[in-house]
Specification:
This protein has helices spanning 2-15, 18-27, 32-54, 59-90, 97-117, 119-127, 137-161, 164-171, 174-198, 222-234. The protein has one domain. It contains 10 helices and no strands. It starts with a helix and ends with a helix.
């Protein structure tokens, strides 16, 4: 029975069933079990995807990224909870601070289901990639950085888009819904990108040793790194 309910809840999330999800938000404390389900989904889905990213450098790096990627999601959620809660009030979404946080938690759960389902594909691609010791490993690293960045951004857009019906249900306004979703998406992508940079290495640099965190934690930013990788790929 519990397994059937879990799959039913996942189906509601992935389909963006606004009526059902709006009931979850209105229920408040009675839906703590579904918050736990969302958190568990993030741990498993994002963790498995993180393992496939780090697997290029071996099992140790895979374990590191499997731990760090869910941490990045939860830190991003914590940072954006207050900001997005304020934006939700200012933009007329009709959602409270708690409902905003729960909505973002559901969006990240959908994100986890998307990237988790793509983990086998990522493993297959890595299986055919040159190892980090190969002379051409630098190009593979740049391809991984750019490719996974756009894949993560795509999954983020789709997951936030699933909240459209919920916000419109509460606000009753398409304009307020569109503004709220745009603000939330921009905040999640911007904060998530920079937090992931602080938690580097995620993709691992062939010339550097494997480590859980880099000593130069606050040097540079994510966008410089992405631009460098894209520029070298174009060349």
């Amino acid at each position: 029975m519990t397994t059937n309910r879990t799959f039913t809840d996942w189906r509601c999330l992935t389909r963006g069933e606004s009526d059902r999800l709006s009931q979850w938000l209105r229920a408040g404390g009675a839906e703590k079990n579904r918050r736990g389900l969302c958190a568990l989904t993030i741990l498993l889905g994002v963790g498995s995807y993180g393992a496939t990213i780090g697997l290029w450098h071996g099992p140790l790096m895979a374990a590191y990224v499997a731990i760090k990627l869910p941490m990045i999601v939860f830190v991003t959620l914590a940072l954006n909870a207050i900001i997005n809660g304020l934006l939700a009030q200012l933009l007329g979404s009709g959602l409270s601070f708690r409902q905003t946080t729960d909505s973002l938690l559901m969006a990240f759960a959908v994100f986890a289901l998307i990237v988790g389902s793509l983990s086998p594909v990522a493993v297959f691609l890595l299986w055919n990639a040159p190892p980090p010791e190969n002379p051409g490993a630098g190009g593979v690293h740049r391809q991984l950085l750019v490719g996974h960045t756009f894949l993560i951004a795509f999954a983020g857009v789709i997951s936030v888009r699933k909240l459209h019906g919920i916000i419109e249900h509460f606000s009753g306004s398409r304009v307020a819904t569109r503004r709220t979703l745009t603000a939330w998406l921009a905040g999640n992508l911007f904060a998530g990108a920079q937090v992931s940079f602080l938690f580097r290495p995620i993709f691992g640099t062939p010339s550097l040793e494997i480590a859980f965190l880099r000593p130069d934690l606050f040097e540079g930013n994510f966008y410089e790194s992405l631009w460098w990788a894209m520029r070298h790929l174009i060349r």
